[in-house]
């Protein structure tokens, strides 16, 4: 549920004045049609600005080898701090207070890591540590897997009815809804996305995802297969078992819901590792798992690093399935490691999604959607349309309009401020990575139209390159920042060829008014999703995932159930006499 | 428009008496009312507004306006949320609804409570389906793009029976609303009260006006007005086969509205020599005497293999002595009164037929007490296939028992009525169970159990027991129509003129 109805509450953007007045009007949410399909960050495009604004209050963080950032990125062994408590009162910059769990969530309890390892969670807004918390290592993963395995076989989970499973998930959704404002503040502080986006997009989307899969719990059915009168053949769709789930930091809470929703609906048990950049919200949420009534061990959540806890999950011989969302390189490691016991695997990895703009398109709409497609969530979206390909007759005009629109719309700043559309990159590491691509683009000969600057630590101004060619690094590699490359094409054939000229295949957008071209191109593009005359639409009922090196399997929708069930074929002989 | 009613537990509540049309309580346009009788003591509980043709017209107009208007803009997910809310509200009011159900229908409190809980579960289940209804994309040739959409049918007339008033309400409303239709639902004239109480929850759940309209009325007037209405796109009926036939005819005579019917049965309950006899006795008892025999899928024909026939009859007779007949508000009661004088008379007349045709009365065969519509649990043995009590649906606490020898014989006998709603097989032998499962022409087969219904399992009849299926995913298709969209993208040749 995105909470906004484009038809009734969406202002027509005709002038800056209109936008401004729209912003100050209370946002009316249509009580019935509130959950109409929305792109993840559509709201961003309505916030006015004359130019990027950086709040003066943001401190510049000087890099020194002792600050936590260096500790986090470069230390090879975590520091031990077993005297760390299991809970700590925290207050976000907007005044929200809560009791933050710091432990690992195993068997419905928060516990210390066995070795006492910890890590720091740092706010990208000011590069300051929010808190230290316990970090899982191999022995902790082992403990969590044992709990999950025991829960998988325990009658408290294995023998409840599908309806009861559904009701537990419904209850969980209700509890998340009650704590929605706290969860929103946690993620804004922890990973830097605007609070308004958390409240209007991430939280409703997550809650709806849980409700959607609650509804599936009692609708998972096997089949009977008629192969002739001598046999009765049927299939049981059974849960896979203990599922390892590793989630990223760009949508901490939505990603948790996409993973947990189908896994729980199908009756699995879970060992989830959150991203080290954004562990806080899911840990807070663990309390709700217990409160909702899930038996101990059904959901276990570990804070930890990829190379330790993540690796231990991928390698664990008693985990039956692993689901990962993150970079393609990490996915490759996970897949290799998972081969140890041939785990079932689903991967939702990187992208370099194209957006094709044909000369018959509504160019203003293409500009606006194109902006959402790459600039929302500060470009930290796996399916971001980061390559815009424009038909040559409107190429110059598109670039001009896109540049103007971006300057007008993107508001960089404190994500707790209501005006902000564009927060910092999630970490110093990501920030530096994005900036490095600016240099790579220039070196390859692409032309920087705007951006490329780093007005403040961890903030990257919206960056636009033009005349980008297929062989350029910035055309091929995922930048994961507010960084778009624009190129041109002449014919439909060339457009599709350029669109398909990367190793990725997650999303793709097509702008045209030609009905035949729209559907033909949609079919020809190598991708898991295509948006016709929009970009980055996503809905919990619609499958999400990639082809080529963008992933294996699908999340969301009925399709995700396939990843969390395993069919068993049963033959019953009806009296064949040998 | 409301009356304060006191139930036998001492609970006082406000009983709505009006018609629930367009989200409001209104009086019947022609000013008619009818009495609601308590079957336990034959006294009048209250009188409710009686819908006739002009009221049906008003309800249809409201349903049409909602269907064309606000309701069509509601997302599937939000439809589902409203249904979840309705289920929650039903659960919050479970004790009230339970008592109203017992008071009006005569079923015991425990059974009524189970019905309400199942009704809420059914609404919640279909709430979950609301955003899981999918069309398809179908590839035929390059240069074309074809897809289907499953769209709601429109305004649905629904006519429900009196044997499970709230449960049937939920079975009808659940799939129709999940798929985006609007509804004019007529309750049975014997049991209008619980549905009216439940109607007070519809606005609270957030449904727009006119999406669900609930009217009380008689079959001959309001029911007939629904089945012949030109503004109703589909009619769904649960009740007797004779009425089902009438409804189908008037649907045909009017606007060829889509029809689903869930009708009568004369379901065989088959017990083999190798069955666990004590369990089989228990299930046979539940199969026929549950809900006072007023169950469309009741196991009213009991066939016992000859090796255990005598033992079974003896044990069955003994078992039913434990069925306490009496006040439904007494917690020990298993069997309450039949629903009405008419039903009571009908059942007693079948019992007389059975006696006259020469079947043996093993027990019962007469009324229980002198007040209320109570009938003693009745078992006839030595019943032959041609007897009326082996062919016709009695809809009361009357079991007919006969013996059989072989699988082949019982398959033939089991299928020997015009009905095909349900059947049961009791055996420990896997092959016997599955072979007979294949041979019996019935919509539901129970193996080593009886009357085990669940909202996720489709329910409906073969032969003259019905058209279409309720419950499960299958019920959704009763309320959807498929639209095929074929787009030419340059791949279709022009056939015309060649």
UniProtKB/TrEMBL annotation, chain A:
Example of a GO biological process term:
polyamine catabolic process
Q: Which UniProt keywords apply?
A: NAD, Oxidoreductase
Q: Which InterPro entries has this protein been placed in?
A: Ald_DH/histidinol_DH, Ald_DH_C, Ald_DH_CS_GLU, Ald_DH_N, Aldehyde_DH_dom
Tell me the GO molecular function terms: aldehyde dehydrogenase (NAD+) activity
Q: Name one Pfam family in it.
A: Aldedh
The answer to keyword NAD applying to this record is yes
Gene3D superfamilies per the record? Answer: Aldehyde Dehydrogenase, Chain A, domain 1 (3.40.605.10), Aldehyde Dehydrogenase, Chain A, domain 2 (3.40.309.10)
Active site per database record = 348
Pathway assignment: Alcohol metabolism; ethanol degradation; acetate from ethanol: step 2/2
Q: Which residues form the Aldehyde dehydrogenase domain?
A: 110-570
Stated family? Belongs to the aldehyde dehydrogenase family.
Name of the protein this chain belongs to: Aldehyde dehydrogenase-like protein
Q: Which organism is it from?
A: Ascodesmis nigricans
From TrEMBL, chain B:
Q: What is its EC number?
A: 1.2.1.3
Domain Aldehyde dehydrogenase: from-to ranges: 25-485
| Keywords per UniProt | NAD, Oxidoreductase
Top-rank taxon, per record: Eukaryota
- Which BP terms does GO give this entry? acetate biosynthetic process
User: What GO MF terms are annotated?
Assistant: aldehyde dehydrogenase (NAD+) activity
Check the record and name the InterPro entries matching this protein. Ald_DH/histidinol_DH (IPR016161), Ald_DH_C (IPR016163), Ald_DH_CS_CYS (IPR016160), Ald_DH_CS_GLU (IPR029510), Ald_DH_N (IPR016162), Aldehyde_DH_dom (IPR015590)
Cellular component (GO) terms are:
mitochondrion
Query: Catalytic site residues?
Result: 262
Pathway participation: Alcohol metabolism; ethanol degradation; acetate from ethanol: step 2/2
**Catalysed conversion reaction:** an aldehyde + NAD(+) + H2O = a carboxylate + NADH + 2 H(+)
Q: Name one Pfam family in it.
A: Aldedh
Say yes or no: keyword NAD present. yes
Q: What is the top EC class of this enzyme, as a single word? A: oxidoreductase
| Annotated family | Belongs to the aldehyde dehydrogenase family.
Protein known as? Aldehyde dehydrogenase
Protein source organism:
Ascodesmis nigricans
């Amino acid at each position: 549920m995105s909470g906004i109805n484009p038809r009734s509450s969406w202002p027509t953007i005709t002038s800056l004045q209109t936008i401004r007045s729209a912003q100050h009007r209370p946002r009316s949410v249509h009580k019935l049609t509130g959950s109409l399909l929305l792109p993840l960050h559509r709201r961003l495009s309505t916030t006015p600005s004359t130019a990027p604004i950086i709040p003066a209050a943001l401190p510049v963080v000087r890099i020194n080898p002792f600050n936590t950032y260096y500790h986090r990125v470069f230390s090879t062994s975590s520091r031990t701090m077993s005297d760390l408590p299991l809970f700590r009162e925290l207050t976000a910059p907007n005044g929200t207070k809560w009791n933050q769990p710091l432990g690992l969530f195993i068997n419905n309890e928060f516990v210390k890591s066995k070795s006492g390892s910890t890590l720091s969670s740092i706010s990208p807004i000011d590069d300051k540590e929010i808190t230290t918390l316990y970090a899982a290592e191999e022995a902790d993963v082992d403990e969590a897997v044992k709990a999950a395995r025991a829960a998988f076989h325990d009658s408290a989970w294995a023998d409840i009815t599908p309806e009861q499973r559904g009701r537990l998930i419904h209850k969980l959704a209700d509890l998340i809804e009650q704590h929605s404002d706290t969860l929103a503040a946690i993620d804004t502080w922890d990973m830097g996305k605007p609070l308004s986006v958390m409240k209007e997009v991430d939280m409703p989307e997550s809650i709806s995802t849980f409700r959607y899969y609650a509804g599936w719990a009692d609708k998972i059915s096997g089949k009977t297969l008629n192969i002739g009168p001598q046999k009765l053949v049927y299939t049981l769709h059974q849960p896979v078992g203990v599922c390892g789930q590793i989630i990223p930091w760009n949508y901490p809470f939505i990603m948790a819901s996409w993973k947990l929703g189908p896994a729980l609906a199908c009756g699995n048990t879970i060992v989830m590792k959150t991203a080290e950049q954004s562990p806080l919200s899911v840990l807070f949420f663990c309390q709700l798992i217990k409160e909702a009534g899930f038996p101990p061990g059904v959901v276990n959540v570990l804070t930890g690093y990829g190379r330790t806890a993540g690796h231990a999950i991928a390698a664990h011989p008693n985990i039956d399935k692993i689901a990962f969302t993150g970079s393609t390189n990490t996915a490759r490691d996970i897949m290799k490691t998972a081969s140890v016991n041939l785990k079932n695997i689903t991967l939702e990895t990187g992208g370099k999604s194209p957006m094709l703009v044909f000369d018959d398109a509504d160019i203003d709409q293409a500009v606006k959607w194109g902006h959402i497609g790459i600039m929302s969530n500060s470009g930290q979206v796996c399916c971001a349309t980061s390559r815009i390909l424009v038909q040559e007759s409107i190429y110059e005009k598109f670039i001009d309009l896109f540049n103007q629109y971006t300057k007008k719309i993107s508001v960089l700043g404190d994500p707790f401020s209501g005006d902000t559309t564009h927060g910092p990159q999630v970490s110093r590491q990501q920030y530096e990575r994005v900036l490095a691509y600016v240099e790579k683009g220039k070196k390859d000969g692409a032309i920087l139209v705007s951006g490329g600057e780093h007005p403040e630590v961890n903030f990257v101004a919206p960056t636009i390159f033009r005349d980008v060619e297929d062989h350029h690094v910035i055309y091929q590699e995922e930048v994961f920042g507010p960084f778009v490359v624009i190129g041109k094409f002449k014919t439909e054939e060339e457009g599709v060829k350029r669109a398909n000229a990367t190793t990725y295949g997650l999303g793709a957008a097509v702008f045209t008014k030609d009905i035949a071209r729209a559907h033909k191109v949609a079919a020809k593009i190598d991708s898991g999703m295509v948006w016709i005359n929009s970009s980055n639409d996503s809905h919990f009922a619609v499958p999400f995932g990639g082809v080529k090196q963008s992933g294996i399997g699908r999340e969301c929708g009925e399709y995700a159930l396939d990843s969390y069930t395993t069919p068993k074929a049963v033959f019953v002989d009806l009296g064949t006499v040998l | 428009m409301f009356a304060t009613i006191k139930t036998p537990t001492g609970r006082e509540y406000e009983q709505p008496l009006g018609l629930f049309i367009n989200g409001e309580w209104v009086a019947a346009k022609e000013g008619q009312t009818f009495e609601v009788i308590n079957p336990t003591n034959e006294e009048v509980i209250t009188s409710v507004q009686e819908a006739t043709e002009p009221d049906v017209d008003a309800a249809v107009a409201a349903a049409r306006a909602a269907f064309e208007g606000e309701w069509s803009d509601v997302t599937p997910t939000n439809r589902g949320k409203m249904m979840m809310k309705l289920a929650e509200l039903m659960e919050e009011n479970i004790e009230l609804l339970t008592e109203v159900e017992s008071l009006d229908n005569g079923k015991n409190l425990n059974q009524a409570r189970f019905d309400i809980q199942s009704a809420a579960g059914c609404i919640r289940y279909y709430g979950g389906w609301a955003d899981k209804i999918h069309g398809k994309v179908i590839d035929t040739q390059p240069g074309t793009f074809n897809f289907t959409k499953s769209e709601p049918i429109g305004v649905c007339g629904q006519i429900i029976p009196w044997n499970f008033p709230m449960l049937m309400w939920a079975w009808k409303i659940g799939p129709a609303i999940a798929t985006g239709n609007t509804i004019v639902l007529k309750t049975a004239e014997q049991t209008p009260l619980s549905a009216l109480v439940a109607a007070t929850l519809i606005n609270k759940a957030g449904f727009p006006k006119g999406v669900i309209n609930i009217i009380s009325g008689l079959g001959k007037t309001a029911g007939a007005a629904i089945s012949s209405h030109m503004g109703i796109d589909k009619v769904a009926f649960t009740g007797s086969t004779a009425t089902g036939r009438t409804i189908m005819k008037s649907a045909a005579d009017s606007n060829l509205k889509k029809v689903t019917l869930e009708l009568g049965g004369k379901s065989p309950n088959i017990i083999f020599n190798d069955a666990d006899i004590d369990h089989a006795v228990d299930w046979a008892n539940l199969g026929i005497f549950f809900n006072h025999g007023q169950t469309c899928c009741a196991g009213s024909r009991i066939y016992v293999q000859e090796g255990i026939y005598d033992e079974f009859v003896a044990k069955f007779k003994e078992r039913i002595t434990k069925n306490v007949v009496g006040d439904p508000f007494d917690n020990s009661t298993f069997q309450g009164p039949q629903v009405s004088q008419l039903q009571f008379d009908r059942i007693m007349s079948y019992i007389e037929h059975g006696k006259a045709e020469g079947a043996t009365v093993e027990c019962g065969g007469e009324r229980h007490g002198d007040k209320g519509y109570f009938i003693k649990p009745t078992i006839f043995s030595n019943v032959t296939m041609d007897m009326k009590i082996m062919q016709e649906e009695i809809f009361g606490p009357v079991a007919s028992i006969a013996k059989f020898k072989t699988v082949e014989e019982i398959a033939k006998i089991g299928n020997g009525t015009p009905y095909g709603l349900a059947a049961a097989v009791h055996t420990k032998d896997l092959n016997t169970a599955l072979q007979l499962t294949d041979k019996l022409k019935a919509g539901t087969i129970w193996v080593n159990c009886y009357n085990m219904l669940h909202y996720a399992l489709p329910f409906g009849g073969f032969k003259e027991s019905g058209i279409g299926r309720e419950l499960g995913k299958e019920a959704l298709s009763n309320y959807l129509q498929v639209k095929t969209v074929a787009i030419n993208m340059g791949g279709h040749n022009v056939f015309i003129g060649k």
